[in-house]
Design a protein that fits this description.
455 residues; alpha+beta; 5-stranded mixed sheet; 3-stranded antiparallel sheet; 19 helices; globular
Length: 455
């Protein structure tokens, strides 16, 4: 066992165990839990994002086409999913055959030998067309040229705003706004019933720090320098976090620390927020027939301060556990769910605005998707080609990643630091104290990484 694997296993201890208990007792399965004669049951652990909820709706289509395979789906909130799958992978538990895994985890888990190498599987069927995946997205799911997960959907980030509300207020949204401009607009549009802007503040490195790290980057801050020295309490990081906290206090949603992606999506789609900075993948839900703001939303690039761009780059992928006893059946499902045909199935069955995007170039060439995507589809493609995951901020970095640091320790660092900042947002702690504690947490992880690299 490598030192990296040992550290990651111990990174979340108690929190991981608690999340597992909640997952097993509280999440509903999809499909038959029993093992019928001649039928292989595979278990999929999935985040409960809208795109994965669409997948749950369509799994009966897969079951009908593959009567010898049943899919048992466990859906979890993002933080719970990461805790549960990390423990299962790190301990070689084999509880999940297929896991929804982010682009942060795939390279680390692939290098550790926790995930099945699907490179050859992807190449076996020419119709699957593995070359159709965007290169940055496919590379984020690879290690040394070998692919360890199939991209399901990809995303960057942008600012979503209510065109009608800005027009009523006589406010024009810049095509490339600064964060100060956004904060000014948010204050103007804030009412007693409506947030001026929704920003994630739920603790968790993948919740709060997905957007907040992009703000840190464009304000000139950074988690680490190239020597793995932490900079959490430095000026750029401090100014960005103070700005984020102040914006929430002045113009944000009520009880902000309870809001992650799903909560902000609900708030905005119900017309209770004027703006929302988050994932480009949210646009499909906002433009769906069930959305209360369909046709009313404008989209512009992520706000900036000192950088030209500030959007993130991320993908959710379907990975097969190396401990699975059902790898062939698992691959049949993964291939189906990440295929061109699946994109068309979503479009035809659920609406083209909801088709998973950001992974396959061919999706953007489908006329129905281009029509349904309106303003957000071409902008998404442009943003994903503009962002630089090798140096998203002002200072250079020696990892590839925008809203995260690609080392095993970052999951724990981000989780702990986000809880400290949540305390600030909730008025339980002062920011300098929180960032000082975050600096010590991050520095310990940096020292571990130096040892890992022999520095």
């Amino acid at each position: 066992m490598t030192r990296r694997r040992q550290r990651l296993r111990g990174a979340g201890g108690l929190a991981i165990g608690t999340a597992m208990a909640l997952t097993l007792s509280g999440c509903a399965g999809f499909g038959e839990l029993g093992q019928a004669p001649g039928v292989t049951t595979i278990t999929l652990a999935s985040v409960n994002n809208p795109q994965m909820q669409d997948l749950a709706t369509l799994i009966p289509k897969f079951n009908a086409e593959h009567p010898d395979i049943r899919v048992n789906l466990l859906m979890m909130e993002e933080n719970d999913l990461r805790n549960a799958t990390t423990q299962d992978a790190a301990t070689q538990g084999g509880q999940y055959d297929v896991m929804t895994v982010g682009s942060y985890e795939v390279p680390i888990w692939g290098e550790n030998g926790w995930l099945m190498d699907v490179t050859d599987k992807m190449a076996e069927d020419p119709s699957y067309d593995a070359d159709d995946f965007f290169t940055p997205i496919k590379e984020s799911a690879s290690v040394d040229g070998r692919t360890y997960a199939a991209p399901f959907y990809g995303e960057s980030s942008f600012l979503m705003y209510r065109k009608d509300l800005l027009a009523e207020a006589g406010v024009e949204m810049p095509e490339r706004p600064t964060w100060q401009e956004v904060a000014d607009i948010a204050r103007q549009l804030k009412t007693d019933e409506r947030a001026g802007i929704c920003l994630r503040a739920k603790p968790g490195w993948g919740e709060m720090f997905a957007p907040l790290t992009t703000v840190v980057n464009t304000f000139g801050g950074q988690w680490y320098d190239e020597q793995w020295n932490a900079h959490v309490d430095d000026q750029g990081f401090t100014e960005a976090t103070q700005f984020y906290v102040d914006t929430l206090a002045e113009s944000g949603q009520r009880d902000p620390v309870s809001f992650g992606f799903t909560e902000c999506l609900n708030l905005f789609s119900q017309g209770n927020a004027a703006m929302w900075y988050d994932a480009t993948s949210a646009a499909g839900s906002l433009e769906s027939d069930s959305s209360g703001v369909k046709g009313k939303v404008g989209y512009v690039r992520a706000p900036v301060m000192k950088t030209e761009n500030a959007g993130w780059l991320f993908s959710w992928n379907l990975a097969i556990s190396n401990e699975s006893d059902n790898k062939d059946a698992a691959w049949e499902f993964v291939k189906w769910a990440t295929s061109k045909e699946y994109v068309e199935l979503v479009g035809n069955e659920l609406g083209w605005a909801q088709a998973p995007s950001g992974t396959r170039a061919s999706t953007f060439e489908i006329p129905e998707y281009a029509e349904a995507g309106g303003d957000f589809a071409p902008l998404t493609a442009e943003i994903m080609n503009e962002v630089d995951p090798k140096q998203p901020g002002v200072a250079p970095q020696n990892w590839v990643g925008i809203q995260y640091v690609t080392i095993p320790q970052f999951q724990d660092v981000g989780n702990q630091t986000s809880q400290l900042i949540a305390d600030v947002i909730a008025g339980r702690r002062e920011l300098p104290e929180a960032l000082s504690d975050g600096q010590r947490i991050a520095q310990r992880a940096g020292e571990q990484q130096k040892l890992e690299e022999g520095k």
